Amino acid sequence: MSINIGSYHAEGPFGNENNLQARSGVYVILGRPSTASTWNVVDVGESQNIRDRVSNHNRAPCWRGQGHAELSVAVIYTDAQNRMLIERQLRAQFNPPCGLI
Q1: In what order do the strands lie in the sheet with 70-77?
Q2: How close are the terminal C-alpha atoms of the chain, in Å?
Q3: Please, which residues bridge with residue 43 across strands?
Q4: What keywords sit in the KW lines (predicted)?
Q5: Which residues share a beta bridge with 89?
Q6: pLDDT for 21-74, tens place per residue?
Q7: What are the distances in angstroms from CA 74 to CA 5, 77, 88?
Q8: pTM of this prediction?
């Protein structure tokens, strides 16, 4: 399963964090009002351990508070230097409602 987020090819979207790997990368929280709708970018972040970060994220209440019927996460696995660059680019492009740089 894969999805394009901006100019990046991401794995997902996954509705369950058990599908995430404990690897370095960028996570994109996606929400949509129904399964027939397109995804909206809710949050973008980076971490050394994607699975742990998404599972225990302090911004999860904001994600749920956006009113989407479905939330999922897409992931771009990459090293520390690239993940910070990709996070900045995606945040600038999508201006997600949750989180700050």
Answers
A1: 2-5, 8-14, 70-77, 25-32, 40-47
A2: 28
A3: 29
A4: Plasmid
A5: none
A6: 999 999 999 999 998 899 999 999 999 999 999 999 999 999 999 999 999 999
A7: 8, 10, 16
A8: 0.95
